[in-house]
Amino acid sequence: MNPLSRFLRNLGLSLLALLALDFAIGRFLSPSYRLQGGSLERYFGYGFSLQNKLERMVGTNDSDAHPLATAGWNTSLPVRVPAREPDCETRYTFYGMSFSNRIANALAEQDPCASIRLVAGPGAPLSHSYSEYQRLHDQDDAEIVVLGVLASSLAKNLSTAHFNSAFEAPGAHMYPRYRWLNGELVETMPPAKSLDEFRTLLNSDVERLKTFLSAHDEYYSPLVFAYPQFDKSIVVRMLRRAYGQSFKRNLLDDFRTSDGRFTNKNNLLDISLAMLVGAARTAEQDDVRFIVFLINDQGFTESLDDAFAQDLSARDVPFLSSTSIIDARNVSNFLPDGHFQPTLDQELANALSRFLSH
Q1: Where do the domains of the chain lie?
Q2: How close are the terminal C-alpha atoms of the chain, in Å?
Q3: Percent of the chain with pLDDT over 90
Q4: CATH code, residues 86-192+257-357
C-alpha cells in the first residue's frame, strides 16, 4: 500500500471512530430532547431540531402536552380574576405577554377594585395580541383594554409561530402573519388554530407546515427546524444551535439601526402601527377605554417610543411608555430571565393607574 492510500485509509478510520464516538456520547449525555433535566443535558439539548422538540412537547393529546406547548393558543376567552372588592369592580383585559401579565398582576395587588383578564402568549408579538383582540373582543366584558407591546418581540410581527423565534426553548402556538399591501393590512391565517390541530399537522403533514413557514415566516430556517435524523449527533446539535443563533442575530440586525432604532424593512413599522390603530378603533366601536403600553425591555431603550409615539399621538391613540419609569440601559433593573424587577412592575402598574385616572 502506497503512503497516500495508507493515509486516506487511516483518515477514514479516524473519522469513522470520531463519528461513532460522537453518536455514543450523544446517546449518553442527551439521548432525547427534554425541556427539563440537568444543566449538561439542557446544554446539549438546545441543538435538537425543532421538529424533534415539538413532537415531544405536544404529546399524544392535550393532557400530556408540556405547558409551554399549550400556552398562547387561547381557543376561548381566559377566565377573569374577580376583584377583591366586588362593589367597586373595574374590569381590565390585558393583551400581551409575560411583561404585561406582570403589570396586570401588580395592578391587582395594588387596587382591590381591579378585575383582571389576561390574554397572552409566551414572548407574544403585537401580531399575536392584535389577532387575539380582534377575535375575542366581542366576547369580553372589559371596561378597559391594555395592549402591551414588547420591544424585543416587535420584529416577530413578521413570524407566524413562537417556535421559530425561540428555537432553543420553543412553544407551539401559531398566529396570523400580517402584510402591508396597498395601504391596508392583509392577514394570512396559520394552518393550525389549536394545539390539537397543530399536533395533527406536525405528525401527519409536516411538509405542509414547512411549506407554510417557508412562505410566511421570516424566522423560519429549514436547518433549524428539520433533519431530526441527525439529532443523535452532539456535533450536529452544537453546529445547529450556533447556526440558529447566528441566523437570528443577522435577521434582527436588519430591523434595527446602529443607534437602536427600528427600521421599516418589510414594512415592519407600517404593519405594527396599523395594528395599534386598528385595535384602538375596535375599542372605540365597543365603547371601551383603550391604552397601548409600550414596554422597552433590556437593550431597547426608547426604541418603541421612537417608532410609534409621534404617530400614536397624531392619531389620538392613548399610550404609556415604560421609558418614563424605567431606564432600560441599567441592567440592575432586570431579573436574570430578562423581566423587570418586581418593584418596577409595581411602579409600572402605579403609572398605569395614574394615567387612567386623568
Answers
A1: 86-192+257-357
A2: 90
A3: 77
A4: 3.40.50.1110
